[in-house]
Design goal:
The protein is built from four helices and six strands, in the order ββαβαββαβα. The protein has helices at about 30-40, 50-55, 95-105, 115-120, and strands at about 1-5, 5, 45-50, 65, 80-85, 110-115. The strands form two sheets. A four-stranded parallel β-sheet has the order 4-3-5-6, sandwiched between helices. Strands 1-2 form a two-stranded antiparallel sheet. It starts with a strand and ends in an 8-residue tail after the last helix.
């Protein structure tokens, strides 16, 4: 079918159309500018939810590698501590999953940065390596 000369295109993964996943826990996102303004503050924790290979290429200074089996051991005792989660970029949802899991444990000041480490690097912000 053609509409005004534009072919009809279907997007998706090739499976049947289905409703988008609804999450009871809504994310509190943070921009790179906001995140950068919190960088280096002792009461703010950054968590990198990337693969070990991507972590080795560079991470936000002071961030903790979070993609481990014992991730609950990395969480602070204070449930209101500011925690910022990020992964690769807007196409990656690992940090969204991690942030929601942490929020399910009762943490109240959890933020998720959509642009991830690729956005951080592309914008010229500082990184460090292990």
């Amino acid at each position: 079918m053609m509409v005004a000369g534009i072919p009809h295109v279907f997007a998706g993964g090739g499976s049947e159309m289905a409703p988008a996943t609804y999450h009871e826990i809504q994310l509190n996102t943070i921009t790179m500018v906001e995140a950068e303004s919190l960088l280096g503050q002792k009461d703010v924790l950054f968590f990198d939810v990337n693969t070990l290979e991507l972590w080795a290429e560079g991470f936000i200074p002071g961030a903790t590698f979070f993609n481990v089996d014992n991730w609950k051991d990395l969480l602070p005792k204070e449930k209101d501590k500011v925690m910022i989660f990020y992964c690769a970029n807007r196409l990656c949802n690992a940090s969204e999953i991690a942030a929601r899991e942490v929020m399910k444990l009762g943490y109240t000041n959890v933020r998720q940065m959509h642009d991830g480490i690729y956005g951080w690097r592309l914008s010229g912000r500082p990184t460090e390596k292990p």
